[in-house]
Amino acid sequence: MTYKRYTAGLLLRVLLLLAALVVLAFGLVKLNTYAILGGSLASIGLLYFLHQFLIRRFVAMDDFFEAVKYRDFSRWFSEKHGPQDLRNLHKGFNSVNKTIKAINNERQAQFVYLQKILEMVDVGIIAYNLDSGAILWANESILSTLDLPAFKNIHFVEKRRPKLYEELFDTYRTEATSISITLKNEHLKVLISETVFQVEEDAFKLVVLQNIEDTLNQNESDAWKKLLSVMTHEIMNSIAPISSLAETLQQHIAASKTNQETEIDLDDLHAGISSIKKRSEGLMKFAKTYRSLSKVTHLNLETVSVNELFTNINDLLQPTLADKPVELSFGMDQPEMLLEIDSYLIEQVLINLILNAIDATKMVAQPKIYVNATQNAKGRVLLKVLDNGSGIPEEIKESIFIPFFSTKKTGSGIGLSLSKQIMTLHKGKIQLKSEPGTGTEFTLQF
């Protein structure tokens, strides 16, 4: 409707101007003074009004675009004065300004909300311009952790603490890393993560710093308590009977010395010494078992074919399976699947899981164990060991990865714990699914 009114007004003014020009032309042809004078005045007047009619809209648009250029969205255009089409144009401008102001207010509210959240988290966060070093954002936590006042440029840190600047801002890390920084002559353990991002033509670096000193101390303390508890229990279980038996034998020998008629039963003495020797060997075995659990600390990574890995494991287990009715099979989604692993350690994990599965299927009529390799939606390789055995009771699922925990009479209790440690070294994890009476599935995710 506005467009039609504007077109009608423009057309009317053009026709009136054309009529005035016709009158002027008639006067010039007929040499009519009144026609010439009237046509000239009318043409000039109508031309001026046409110019004003057109220019007012362009002036309004220039004003609007100027306001947009300088982000002045508080500008208000009159909706009650001037032609109807111009008022409608002003109304459109005002509507745009209102929308942009609402968006800006929403963004500002979100920014304040995010600001408050980042201030509350107990993690240091700082973002700065890579070229100029200007701080885009730094929360109170990082200032508190680094014991620094508020600063606007990272070169402030470079001047005051060059070593700290080199550790935090002058070194690029591709993954989260724990480092030790020195503050007030004290060493502080922190976890640092960083990433670079682009905003238009500027590059920024985001650094996230987390003080893990207290957490590490607490975890270390808890780990020591658990370790000492387990070791004390195991050692006491071995030492108590040794001490008791040694005391009994000592009493027999002492009685024999004081009373010559009392003879030492050599069979009893031999049996007692044999028991002491056996329990001592058990204690030594426990110590060796603990040492084997703690010595796996690094990997010898190599690219290994999953097919070759499965073939080696199958060959190794054939003598064990020769006198057992267990059906062991292997499969994979892709024949050329590769893994970057320490093949010796992963073979150890898979063999341990398969041997556990053999024990779990002893009471099954048709025992089956299936080992397969797949890739999930994220492209990560999954190795699975599935069996149709007795399953794992719900109440002990949380305990099976604890060192020295075992449900077997002859088990050392380190197999699954060692497997978990090996997967952690590979930056992967081991997961369990089990239903009593149905079977168990262990998944190694790399």
Automatic annotation (TrEMBL):
Top-level taxon: Bacteria
Matching CDD domains, A to Z? HATPase (cd00075)
Question: Where in this chain does the record put each Histidine kinase domain?
Answer: 230-446
Question: What is the enzyme's main class?
Answer: transferase
Entry keywords, A to Z: ATP-binding, Kinase, Membrane, Nucleotide-binding, Transferase, Transmembrane, Transmembrane helix, Two-component regulatory system
Report the catalytic activity: ATP + protein L-histidine = ADP + protein N-phospho-L-histidine
Q: Which Gene3D superfamilies match?
A: Histidine kinase-like ATPase, C-terminal domain (3.30.565.10)
MF-aspect GO terms: ATP binding; protein histidine kinase activity
Q: List the transmembrane segments.
A: 35-55
Query: Where does this protein have coiled-coil stretches?
Result: none
In the record, biological process GO terms are:
phosphorelay signal transduction system
The protein's Enzyme Commission number? 2.7.13.3
The record, for InterPro entries, names: HATPase_C_sf, HATPase_dom, His_kinase_dom, Sig_transdc_His_kin-like_C
Q: Which PANTHER family did the record assign?
A: C4-DICARBOXYLATE TRANSPORT SENSOR PROTEIN DCTB (PTHR43065:SF46), SENSOR HISTIDINE KINASE (PTHR43065)
Protein name from the UniProt record: histidine kinase
Organism listed in the record: Leeuwenhoekiella blandensis (strain CECT 7118 / CCUG 51940 / KCTC 22103 / MED217)
